[in-house]
Design goal:
Elements lengths: L20 H13 L15 E10 L3 E8 L3 H5 L2 E5 L4 H10 L1 H7 L6 H20 L4 E11 L4 E3 L2 E5 L1
Antiparallel strand pairs: 1-2, 1-4, 2-3, 4-5, 4-6
Helix pairs in contact: 3-4, 3-5
Length: about 160
């Protein structure tokens, strides 16, 4: 974790597919020498769909939950859905259904009612968390969120406090 770097992969600070201990030690040495303050080593998880999930605060308007297709598609598609964090579960479900992310989750190739429901639960939980926090919370960015047949898993996150 490198202070001041929001997009670690753009700065060459993410290493995937490390095959053994020697390579892990070499990459750790390289990252620490390049300014990383701490390192996180975790298993590689593959998902069927990459999503993004977050919270943004707009001065004078309040907090909003945001979601959409994530990973490499975030900037390429620029297609996200924004809802007030106070939205009901039914309002979130309706917005997810109408989004490209919802279309992918409900497509015939990736038909998986459980994945849709798990993504809906994750969005609703993040909105509820944002509603329960104080004014210091400015933003949360979880990207990618991997959606599999079994789970919805946030792989990387950034939390911004004022």
């Amino acid at each position: 974790m490198t202070p001041g770097v929001a997009h670690k992969s753009d700065a060459g600070l993410v290493v995937l597919g490390v095959p053994d201990r020697d390579r892990c030690e070499a990459e750790a040495t390289r990252l620490l020498a390049n300014g990383s303050a701490r390192l996180l080593v975790q298993p590689v998880v593959k998902g069927d769909t990459e999503a993004l999930l977050g919270v943004v605060t707009e001065p004078g308007l309040g907090r909003f939950v945001v979601f959409g297709l994530g990973g490499i598609y975030t900037e390429a598609l620029a297609d996200t859905t924004l809802l007030p964090c106070a939205a009901t579960r039914d309002e979130i479900a309706d917005a997810l259904t109408r989004s490209r992310l919802g279309a992918v989750l409900a497509s015939t190739r990736g038909a998986n009612k459980k994945a849709f429901e798990q993504m809906l639960a994750a969005i609703a939980a993040l909105a509820a968390f944002a509603n329960a926090t104080d004014d210091r919370l400015q933003a949360i960015d979880v990207n990618p969120v991997l959606v599999t047949d079994a789970d919805v898993l946030g792989v990387d996150a950034l939390i911004v406090l004022s």
